[in-house]
Amino acid sequence: MIRYLCTATLLTTVFCQQFPPDIKDDIFNIISNTSVILKECSGTVVSPSELTFTLFNQENPENGIVLDHTNLQQVKPENRLILIIHGWLQSASQSWIIQMKDVYLNQTAANIIVVDWSRSAGINYASSVCAVPQVGSYVADLIFNITSDNAAQLNNTQINGFSLGAHVAGIAGQDIQTKTNGHKIGRINGLEAAGPGFVGRPANKRLDKKDAWFVQAIHTNNWQFGYGLSYATVDFQVNKLLLNCGAFQRGCPFFSGVPKSISNDILEGLLPHIFCNHIRAAVYFIESINSGNFIGVSCKSCFRFGLGLCKSSPTAVMGENCPSDVSGDYYLSTNARTPLARGD
Ligand SMILES: *[C@@H]1O[C@H](CO)[C@@H](O)[C@H](O)[C@H]1NC(C)=O
Ligand SMILES: *[C@@H]1O[C@H](CO)[C@@H](O)[C@H](O)[C@H]1NC(C)=O
Ligand SMILES: *[C@@H]1O[C@H](CO)[C@@H](O)[C@H](O)[C@H]1NC(C)=O
Ligand SMILES: *[C@@H]1O[C@H](CO)[C@@H](O)[C@H](O)[C@H]1NC(C)=O
């Protein structure tokens, strides 16, 4: 762990010179497991015009259609609706988002809506945290405007949210229930739901198992960027290092698994490494769309998993193909390089 911490800290110190100082401090604090200074959110205003919702489907796989309330009929009700929501310091043009969308559309006639809230996500961490509830409520408006009270279509809706985007998904899932008298979104995948600012907060301020019919959590950086406690219908804890499960990933920080960004932006180039353990949740998820090989084993604790006491316990496939009838904590290990799934 020390080694990982040192490498990450080194990367931060050496390369963060170009980041705005408040962002640099936030990254340093989060990586060294000290709390970030949160703030009173009362003055935060996110205007709807800051958000962009872009629809991709098999007819428009590259150049998406920017949605507003006049063209929502472009979303085909007979197909699945999948929303993808980015996290802190990210935008909709993140390479992992483009890859996730491409992998889905290669095999599924889905409506993929990519949410961009980069303006509020591109500032200091505490301010981005404050924007989450409002962004979540706009996402709920969009889903409600598309599906109205159609429970079957809501059941056919899934949100994949990364980091702060996972909590945006949670708030959207709660708002949908308020708007529809208790109807729920089918599934939310919490890809490394953010930890700082959310641990210790009540369930209605963050992503939680009640926010959809089925909530799956993938934990890859517990107690740093990620939410270290179990919070979902099913929680997958990926990889074990010393006494930590779901915290440090094989191959990090040098092999992040994120496709190389086309931009030469220092932030884009470096963040995959600083976020290596964190972003892996999204990387595993993308591989899982065409794979049933991330196989978790049910276990009561990381300690018992480490001792090999759960080898004959029930298993569950992690990721896109996770069945809806599993619950509780599951543990698994991965490879350090692609294919990351081990199949055992
Ligand atoms: C799409 O599918 C083809 C054939 O299975 C495969 O060769 C290609 O790599 C896939 N592309 C993506 C982005 O998944
Ligand atoms: C949803 O519909 C309401 C009422 O027509 C409109 O004010 C709002 O802008 C719409 N929001 C989205 C995201 O489509
Ligand atoms: C939605 O899915 C849940 C669980 O998968 C099920 O209990 C519920 O009845 C479904 N609702 C509708 C309207 O299909
Ligand atoms: C980080 O801090 C939390 C709470 O203070 C602690 O439970 C956890 O073990 C720490 N994680 C690491 C990786 O040191």
Automatic annotation (TrEMBL):
Report domain Lipase positions. Answer: 49-339
The record's subcellular locations are: Secreted
The GO cellular component terms are: extracellular space
Q: Which residues form the signal peptide?
A: 1-16
- Main location group: secreted
Molecular functions (GO terms): lipase activity; serine hydrolase activity
Please, one GO biological process term? Answer: lipid catabolic process
Write out the entry's keywords from A to Z. Answer: Secreted, Signal
Q: Name one Pfam family in it.
A: Lipase
Family to which this protein belongs: Belongs to the AB hydrolase superfamily. Lipase family.
Q: What is this protein called?
A: Lipase domain-containing protein
Organism from which the protein derives: Ignelater luminosus
